[in-house]
Amino acid sequence: MAHVINFSEASFIALHGMVIIAETEDMVNVVEIADRLKSSKHHVAKVMQRLVKDGYLNSHRGPSGGFTLRKKPDEITFLEVYECIEGKIEIGDCPLDRPICPFHKCIFNNVTKKMTEEFVAYMEGETLGKYVLPIR
User: For residue 45, what is the domain's CATH number?
Assistant: First the structure.
């Protein structure tokens, strides 16, 4: 089945893993995240270390170690997390980044540019804090 927008597994792990970490006051380890996301612990570890390297997470080693956020959940946007994993989103006129179209008018009528702009706007407006359940 084809999808117009595809998320890599790494982006899925990063976004969902960050919400899992934001939901708790304690440290969350790779095994807990991998179990909740039904993902490989090795892949989760690799993604989380990227987020540590880029300054979104603190990492604590050892048997009682894990990850904590470096900023408050309301200060971290989905776009920041997504771009940390996938790279900066560039909004262009052509989906293939061609400088000259072979036709007099884009056959996609710039729908890909509009979709990308809407996606970026949505991701900028969403923060981890919006998805953290209140503590009871």
Answer: 1.10.10.10
Nearest alpha carbon to residue 43 among 84, 60, 64, 35? 35
Q: Are the C-beta atoms of 65 and 29 separated by less than 8 Å?
A: yes
Task: Provide the whole-model pTM.
Answer: 0.88
In a domain, 107, yes or no: yes
Q: What percent of the residues of the chain are helix, what percent strand, and what percent coil, each to the nearest 5?
A: 50, 10, 45
Mean pLDDT score, 30-42: 97
Number of separate domains in the chain:
1
Whole-angstrom distance, CA of residue 60 vs CA of residue 63: 9
- Enclosing domain of residue 75: 9-131
